[in-house]
Amino acid sequence: MPTVPATPTSRTDAPTMPSVPAVARVNPAISVCIAVRDRPELLVKSIRSVVAGAFHNFEVVVVDDGSHTPAREALAESGLLADARIRVVRQEPAGISVARNTALRTARGKYITVLDSDDELARDGLERINEFLVRTGASWVYTDYEESTGDTSRVISLPAYPDPRRMLWSVLMRPRLPFKHSGMSIDRDLLLELGGYDEQMPIKVDVELVLRALSRGVHLQRLPHPVVRFHRHEGNISRRRLAGLSAWAKMIRTYTPPRRPGLALGLLTVRAASEIGKWLVTAAGR
Fold this sequence. Notes:
Elements: E1 11-13, E2 30-36, H1 40-51, E3 58-65, H2 71-78, E4 86-91, H3 96-106, E5 111-114, E6 120-121, H4 125-136, E7 140-149, E8 152-156, H5 164-173, E9 185-187, H6 188-194, H7 205-215, E10 221-231, H8 241-255, H9 263-284
Parallel strand pairs: 2-3, 2-5, 3-4, 7-10
Antiparallel strand pairs: 1-4, 5-9, 6-10, 7-8, 7-9
């Protein structure tokens, strides 16, 4: 079972401020957690989208996973470190799972909202998330999103599920994932109870986390609003198709019921066909 190490492997680079806004002296409602490596311009753009929103009871936790040029330098040059709600943790390169667990340990909010370093929050994103959490009492929320490719964009509306079991099967079987990790908001105590992100997974760590939660009966609820803008480009980690297939094989073996012989092989065949199809579409678009 994956666990979040009790002893941090990173150090916190806390900005020195002449005065700290009152909002930074109390635990915020939401901690926006961003793991990054070597994307300074995109990171600045991402954080600016959070700060520009109408919701103010948040903090931003940036985990710099060994960037060649420290992320803190880009944030300082942009003036963003003048906002005491933005905190930076720098660690030696350790991978996305370790970086996300570092953010989880560092966060102070009741809820963790994940934001990829190359994505942006909608102006009303946190406001919509907070309203939904308060109104429904949900412990785990995923949202619709806007997908941008070059000069075009479209809203992706995701399906909702009445129970965890049906969503688990959908995650395993659908060619396209029925959730987006970026923009997902999770009760921090629940995420700690689940053990955080699996640090043995080099890729697809979000899928493994969702499957683990669903297998334990956690009901993920959908917020039908595009909270994040996802930018599709050559640097997306999801383009690592072969590594992704290896990760899928491991997850299918783990989360497919053993009483269904042959089912795991069938699911892996479907997933392989899906990944190959995505690769062909990507290659044709170049």
